Amino acid sequence: MPLLARMLPAPLTMQVRRGAVVELGALLADSRVATSGRVAVAVGPGQGDHIESLIAPQLDEAEVFRVADGSVDAAVTLGADLRKGAYEVVVGVGGGKTIDATKYAASLAGIPMVAVATNLSHDGICSPTASLVHEGGKGTFGVPMPLAILVDLDFVHNAPKQLIRAGVGDVVSNLSAIDDWQLGNTERGEPIDGLACSMARTAAEALIGRTDSIESDAFLTVLAESLILSGMSMVVAGSSRPASGGDHEIMHAVDQLFPGTSNHGELAGIGAAFCFFLREDKARVTQVVDCLRQHELPVVPADIGLSDEQFAEAVALAPATRPGRYTILEHLRMQDNEIRDRVGDYVRAFGR
Ligand SMILES: [Zn+2]
């Protein structure tokens, strides 16, 4: 018999709601997640005490570990603790750094991981990658996707607003990444995965036209779903292609040249707007810029404290940050003076 369908890996459960941390015990009682009750919980340094006090009454058997930071060292230390304790599952509760370190630790220990996100700053909460800091800078490591994903809106409401808004930039950048993938397909014959594109695009389209913002539970729910769907599109694609194009190359270049300038999602958002400007896609660039403004996200270099010249330097370096990935930047192969002119035109068109 021919193949009837392709099987897709997906989390066992996905919940976006208030009170997810308080009711974590119910999920861990699910025998598909843990049978013997040997559960480890990993929390970050910031909110660790608070989270531990919330989960202690429901998980008296669980051992709680502190993850120092989002470094490879912290993840390796946790991985060794998990192996020693012969745990069945580890629950990572926190923001991106804690979740990424826990994902990597779980893969080292060979056990599944449950992600409980308290923040919505980027699409790593359910992706098959962990972004961790090491001696040489920042690296991306392939890991299994979480077995279950929970987003606690109570925590999200209390997280720094700037970080929640950043998630919007990361999701919207999918639209630019998909155009880049399409370009790679047309120009270079690179295989493209229609299902991965549809998931990544749907995630962005669900968000971009909304008139509410991060104060509303309804908006945060869609933002969380979009970030999770983006992560799953990368699982389907087997790479970050549907959610990372020239937009993310510019982000990586800014990170390398001017570390600490801004966060992942904010830079991805600016990168996406600038890439649509380069494509001369007037409708999309206007739509993306309007969306960034609506959520108080940066649009032009000055909004993140960079001069036009510095941003142009980052655009010039961008293709080298991701060798082999064909995007609008590799396609146009602009010289430095041309890049400076285009950045100038962009700022004149969209600066305030
Ligand atoms: Zn991203």
From TrEMBL:
Task: State the species of origin.
Answer: Nonomuraea polychroma
Q: What is this protein called?
A: Glycerol-1-phosphate dehydrogenase [NAD(P)+]
Binding site residues for glycerol: 123, 170, 248, 264
Q: Does the keyword Lipid biosynthesis apply?
A: yes
Where NAD(+) binds, per the record, is at 96-100, 118-121, 127
Presence of the UniProt keyword Lipid metabolism in the record: yes
Q: How is the cofactor bound, as the UniProt entry phrases it? A: Binds 1 zinc ion per subunit.
Q: Name one GO biological process term.
A: phospholipid biosynthetic process
Listed A to Z, the keywords are: Cytoplasm, Lipid biosynthesis, Lipid metabolism, Metal-binding, NAD, NADP, Oxidoreductase, Phospholipid biosynthesis, Phospholipid metabolism, Zinc
Q: Which SUPFAM superfamilies match?
A: Dehydroquinate synthase-like
Q: Which CDD domains match?
A: G1PDH-like
The cross-references to InterPro entries, in alphabetical order and at most eight, read:
G1PDH (IPR032837), Glycerol_DH (IPR016205)
Q: Which Gene3D superfamilies match?
A: 3.40.50.1970, Dehydroquinate synthase-like - alpha domain
Query: Which co-factor is required?
Result: Zn(2+)
Its lineage opens with: Bacteria, Bacillati, Actinomycetota, Actinomycetes, Streptosporangiales
GO terms of molecular function: metal ion binding; oxidoreductase activity, acting on CH-OH group of donors
